[in-house]
Write a structure and sequence with these properties.
This protein has about 90 residues and is of the alpha+beta class. The protein has a two-stranded antiparallel sheet with strand order 1-2.
Length: about 90
């Protein structure tokens, strides 16, 4: 993404686009973020998602940007299908 070569940037974007469309996600490796930093970040998120719902709601997502905490419960004919909490950052 930061290459001076426009063709490399274009191909990288195309590969990310394809991964998102085909698989719904992608993984970045060799990004330069240290293991210690990733561990501290993971621990902070775990602590956040273990908070009571009322506390997490203080960080509720904005309807204009969707940034912040949210929760979705998939329900079909009264049966719970999926529950996911999320925190969206843009």
């Amino acid at each position: 993404m930061y290459s001076g070569d426009a063709e490399i940037r274009r191909r990288t974007v195309a590969l990310i686009d394809e991964a998102c469309r085909e698989w719904g996600f992608f993984q970045v490796v060799n990004h330069g973020v240290g293991h210690e930093m990733m561990g501290r970040t993971r621990e902070a998120w775990r602590e956040f998602f273990q908070l009571p719902v009322e506390e997490k709601q203080r960080y509720a997502n904005s309807p204009t940007t969707y940034e912040g905490y949210g929760s979705r419960l998939g329900v079909e004919k009264g049966i719970s299908l999926d529950w996911s909490d999320y925190f969206f950052l843009h």
